[in-house]
Write a structure and sequence with these properties.
Chain lengths: 233, 221, 193, 221, 193
């Protein structure tokens, strides 16, 4: 029931390519963001933070949705590999949510004039951050492989409810934060084409980065599981 | 899932609470004291704005519910009482719903007393009392499904005393905000708003109940 | 003879070690005694049969009503012994009317039966737990050190109760230290550790 | 009263917390979450007034301290661990001070993190940071003597989970108000006020410590 | 011979009843066995000697260092058995260095000794508690059902330990069911209930 080898090796083989791909994509996207795309009419060059900011936020969503999917898969199959995917994705998600908060605060200083504003999306992002820190805490506090995986999976399923709340929070209460201009409910982006292209490029680059980090982190977790399984055998 | 068994678990809970009739009294007193202290600290002027008063009331309710539920499960761990229930046929399925039911009854009572007390202490005017009752019921229904779920997840873990609020409070934020807004709407005479918020609260309650009933039995040990 | 219940390739992991490994066990009507030094996994095995610990591997097949009396008394504090037992009986669909006589038979007076269990002595709590044998009347009975804390008179009553249950062709699994008199009449002695 | 023994009890406490290194992490997260949720529910505008922010911070601290202390004593009751200490020569005298000491260290750390977070989240300007630190230290010193006292008084009583806040919060009101005012004074640049409030807090701490040291040994069972 | 410790007219009330009433007891070096059916007050009597329950009436005179091992193991969870015992030793001024060897002598491996006590089996927790006999070395030792949960090997070790302590002229008070072999060598058997 506990198969450790097959999937891990194929992921291992993909990893160098993912690494290379994310480096290349990041360079291209950075060039597009910093050089190729024009400064904003209102914000000037400060707008360039946008590309990283949005890609960051995208990764946070992506990571937590993956946690959700892996959690469902774990409860369904009880295969430890899905637990490894869930931790890996949760940690990466917490990292990028944290970056969203920090970079967002840095950006907020010049644009809104404050470090922190009690604005729906900002606050819901902070709440989402707290939730997944809680998720990692729960994992750390239980030390038994199967039990921990089951409990974490349940939590991973419950917490995903917050992701749409974060995304839609701006449309519920009008606020400082921009309304969604890319992932709009009506799917009609309202952005300068070159800026949109840079944004998409950065998002793709970050997604590659996510895939790379995932393979690395899942690999570590699989080894850890294997060690535990071996130690008990 | 058998309703009879859920009822039995709920009755056992209430009875264990009643064997110590101070359980209810102390929950009520707890909310009262909390509201008092919070209002005092925030300053009575700020506290008597309906939005602030509502927020304080609902935070107090959430805390009371977390404490009551944690206490209830700690009691189960002593002498492995929970094992006896889990080993019964159907025990694992009945416990989530049974505990949630008993907790709903408990905090419903607390809400009545605490709410009346808040209104009195802060001399708030309520434009739509009927709607306020509706929002309060919806808000009360929303808390137990979430809180019992998290208490079960943290069961037997170290630091669970802090872990449960850490996990539950962020998840409860939307509900607390909805309950606060609903309360404020009812107080200020916005009937449509109050009903909309109450509906949202009921929706939350349903979603988490279904989630809990489906996945909690897997976590119980 | 058909087995009442069975484990196949059962492996139970607690923390970082396999306490039970690849165990096959068929439980037959009559008495099965589980023996082994401290920490050999007796409690874990009984909890595994009762379905209270998750398996890392293996199967559990327990098709009959089961009563598990653990190393602790499993009584909810705040509630009296009587209310505890009535709840458990009602949950199972057994008649709660048996509770009073059963507690009396195990030497718990009506007065003590209606006090919160945390004010009973350790032996009284154990007796109250054992009274479940008379109330819930299951085909498979799991007893984890049931003689612990009992005085001589209660221990004799328990030994006799076990003989009666075995005579009724029920399946009784007992984990215990000492009490060598159980082994000759047991149809199987499982040694762990 | 032996300082060595008090130190031993405090070290045992810290170690039991550290065997779970996340104990501290979760205490800090707990305060962070509480501040976040409270500010959110009260409304950020109201919450960023120094007086309100201070009040919410100190209420959160009081709760965190109550939870931590209750947890610590519940742990002692399991398997009668407390009996072993009480049966030691001098055990009855050392336990109050030892627990209070460990708790002070814990909530001191929590106050640092929670305080920094409050300042950041609510973008508060502090006119006299040094005085703020002083007030915070004084406020932190004031909580454990009271809270440990009440947790001991409620020990083994049924409903103690709710009983402790009921008993402790009203008694803490003066301290919470003093700490809030001291915080506000330090924030707004009123040096004399901040020092006066800090002094009051220290006086409270002393009074309750003496009280606790005198009467707790008799109450412990 | 002078008594090590004594109770005079001791009356202990729990809830609404006097569990111990007007008891005079002198404890002499050697073994004192306390016997009595369940709920007869053995645990309460030992706790009274240890100073853990308040007296409604009467006097307690216990001038020597006392070690009370209760019906439960009295180990703080979250802490390992080693840390638990080291703390208790240090508090008394005994050398904490004795803890490791003592635990090993009672069959707790170094690995189990450093795990949180809640992950030990019931028998292991009891053994860890008994290791305090070797660490704290008190003149008056109170043991409440010390054989509970022990396997045969540990029970033999305990019986031997009791003989050694009695040989050193220490005062040992044991409340227990069964183990009739203790009585002949005891210098007194107290019957309750
Ligand atoms: C997951 C959460 C978040 C998402 C999805 C998100 C998304 C976005 C998007 C799409 C924009 C650009 C809007 C546009 O120009 O069309 C934006 C702007 C911005 N965001 Fe965020 N954001 C998130 C969280 C945050 C946080 C936590 C902060 C601050 C702490 C922040 C601060 C800002 C700032 C300062 C701007 C520029 C606003 C302006 O142009 O007026 N964001 N965000
Ligand atoms: N907190 C309490 N409140 C009321 N009665 C109590 C309390 N604790 C114990 N008792 C009662 O005191 C009596 C003596 O209890 P104790 O535990 O001393 O008995 P024991 O001889 O040790 O019994 P056992 O052999 O079962 O351990 C019992 O009847 C018990 O019900
Ligand atoms: N939660 C846990 N985490 C890690 N290890 C555990 C846990 N619970 C039990 N163990 C270990 O599992 C092993 C078996 O324990 P178990 O309680 O089943 O033994 P036992 O045979 O019943 O012993 P005893 O005779 O002492 O009751 C022991 O080594 C124990 O330390
Ligand atoms: Mg066992
Ligand atoms: Mg006893």
């Amino acid at each position: 029931m506990i198969s450790t080898t097959a999937k891990t090796t194929s992921a291992l083989r993909a990893r160098p390519f993912l690494g290379a791909a994310s480096i290349v994509a990041l360079f291209v996207a950075l060039w597009m963001a910093l050089v190729w795309s024009p400064p904003d009419a209102a914000m000037g060059n400060v707008v360039r933070i946008l590309y990283v900011h949005v890609a960051n936020a995208w990764l946070a969503y992506l990571a937590f949705v993956i946690v959700f999917l892996a959690s469902v898969a774990y409860l369904w199959t009880k295969r430890p590999v899905f637990d490894a995917v869930a931790v890996a994705s949760a940690e990466i998600g917490v990292l990028f949510t944290g970056l969203t908060l920090v970079l967002g605060s840095i950006w907020a200083r010049p644009t809104w004039g404050v470090w922190w504003s009690w604005e729906p999306r900002v606050v819901t992002t902070a709440v989402m951050f707290a939730m997944y820190v809680g998720y990692l805490l729960l994992r750390n506090l239980s030390d038994d492989l199967e039990r921990r995986a089951t409990r974490a999976a349940i939590l991973g399923i419950v917490l995903v409810v917050d992701v749409p709340i974060v995304h839609l929070s701006v449309t519920w209460m009008n606020a400082l934060h921009q309304l969604p201009s890319v992932l709009r409910p009506d799917l009609q982006p309202t952005l300068d084409p070159s800026m949109l292209a840079s944004l998409i490029a950065m998002t793709i680059a970050f997604t590659f980065l996510y895939a790379y980090l995932m393979t690395a982190r899942v690999d570590i977790e699989r080894r850890r599981q294997a060690r535990v399984i071996e130690a008990r055998a | 899932m058998s309703l009879r068994r859920i009822g039995l678990v709920a009755r056992r809970e209430v009875r264990a609470e009643r064997g110590q009739p101070d359980g209810l009294v102390s929950a009520v007193t707890f909310v009262a004291v909390l509201i008092l202290v919070e209002s005092l600290a925030v300053g009575p002027l700020a506290a008597s704005r309906p939005a602030v008063a509502g927020a304080l009331f609902w935070i107090a309710m959430a805390f009371a519910a977390i404490l009551a539920t944690s206490r209830s499960f700690e009691r189960e761990l002593e002498d492995d009482a929970l094992d006896a229930v889990l080993a019964l046929p159907g025990g694992r399925d009945a416990i989530y719903a049974g505990k949630a039911l008993a907790l709903t009854a408990l905090i419903g009572l607390v809400a009545i007393v605490g709410g009346a007390l808040s209104l009195l202490l802060l001399s708030l005017d309520v434009a739509l009392p009927g709607h306020l009752v509706l929002v309060t019921i919806a808000g009360v229904l929303g808390l137990p499904p979430v809180i019992v779920l998290f208490v079960v997840l943290a069961l037997r873990l170290r630091s669970r005393g802090a872990l449960v609020p850490i996990l539950a409070l962020p998840v409860l934020v939307p509900q607390l905000v909805a309950a606060t807004n609903g309360t404020a709407a009812a107080a200020s005479g916005d009937a449509a708003g109050a009903i909309a918020w109450a509906g949202l609260l009921v929706a939350f309650a349903l979603v988490y109940s279904v989630l809990g009933l489906t996945i909690v039995p897997a976590a119980l040990e | 003879m058909n087995s009442t219940a069975s484990l196949r390739g059962a492996t139970v992991v607690l923390g970082d070690r396999a306490v039970i490994r690849d165990l096959d066990l068929d439980l037959m009507p009559g008495v099965t005694v589980i023996r082994g030094p401290n920490a050999s996994g007796k409690t874990t095995l009984l909890r595994a049969i009762a379905g209270l610990v998750p398996f890392a591997r293996g199967e559990r097949d327990v098709p009959v009503p089961t009563l598990f009396l653990g190393q602790r008394a499993q009584l909810l504090r705040g509630l009296s012994a009587r209310d505890n037992l009535r709840f458990l009986a009602a949950f199972r669909g057994a008649s709660p009317d048996r509770v009073g006589p059963a507690l009396a038979a195990w030497g718990i007076s009506a007065r003590d039966a209606s006090r919160p269990v945390e004010t009973l002595s350790a032996g009284q709590r154990r007796r109250a737990a054992l009274a479940r044998l008379d109330v819930e009347r299951c085909d498979l009975v799991l007893l984890d050190e049931p003689f612990g804390e009992l005085d001589d008179q209660a221990a004799t009553a328990l030994a006799q109760k076990i003989r009666i249950l075995a005579g009724e062709r029920r399946t009784i699994v007992i984990a215990t230290h000492g009490h060598p008199e159980l082994d000759p009449s047991a149809n199987r002695v499982v040694r762990l550790g």
